[in-house]
Amino acid sequence: MARKEKENKNSKELTLKRRMLAHYSPKDPVAEQYRTIRTNIQFSGVDQDIKSLLLTSSGTAEGKSTTASNLAAVYAQQGLKVLLVDADLRKPTAHYTFRLENHSGLTNVLTRQSSLGQAVQETEVSNLYVLTSGPIPPNPSELLASYQMAELLSEMKQHFDMVIFDTPPILAVTDAQILANQVDASILVVSSGKTDKEAALKAKELLFYAKSKLLGAVLNNRKAEGGNYYYYYYGKNKY
């Protein structure tokens, strides 16, 4: 039994390190791609300072949450004070990725049961903080569309240099569209060989209708030479 528990623990540690390559393996080619994404975002913000960013995808299991977490890590590595917000109030994962408690989070702050300062948690990544989802509510869309959310975003930008939102797939629910209208910019995450082209185009359309500044797309799970998988940033003209 003890051996099995140890194997399970080692397996979880390995999964965590794979999800957070930018932190645990900063010299890995994939980690370098995250830094490339960060650089491209910074160049995209020449006319407007980008301090809040939303990541979404057309469907599930396309690497959206992993991309958001690693992107937050590489921004923090620049010395910026970064807040990663788990705004997927239906299937949150940030507390698993960073091994945090999820008793209090975004939903508690939006319902005024907690302050932002009380709910934000530090991570082992220097300069990176996480606001977990908190208890899953019966009305996620209404909470994200509330006046409290707009006020909270303003407060976040006062205390952090960069705020990154991990949101649900945009074709499944309206949550991402609601937030896309409030943040400075958005990025669409697509998975090589999995994301349907029509679905990606529909997702892009929805972000356009939400009047979001779509910077481009992150293509992940593309197999490179040698069998390694990497993440790559495409400019918006590619779509």
TrEMBL record:
GO terms for cellular component: plasma membrane. It holds the Pfam family AAA_31. Its EC number is 2.7.10.2. Keywords: ATP-binding, Kinase, Nucleotide-binding, Transferase, Tyrosine-protein kinase. Coiled coil: none annotated. The keyword Phosphoprotein does not apply. Signal peptide: none annotated. SUPFAM superfamilies: P-loop containing nucleoside triphosphate hydrolases. InterPro entries: AAA_dom, Bact_polysacc_biosynth/exp, P-loop_NTPase, Wzc-like_C. GO terms for molecular function: ATP binding; identical protein binding; non-membrane spanning protein tyrosine kinase activity. Residues 63-181 form the AAA domain. It catalyses: L-tyrosyl-[protein] + ATP = O-phospho-L-tyrosyl-[protein] + ADP + H(+). NCBIfam families: eps_fam. Belongs to the CpsD/CapB family. This is non-specific protein-tyrosine kinase. It comes from Priestia megaterium (Bacillus megaterium). The lineage of its organism: Bacteria, Bacillati, Bacillota, Bacilli, Bacillales.
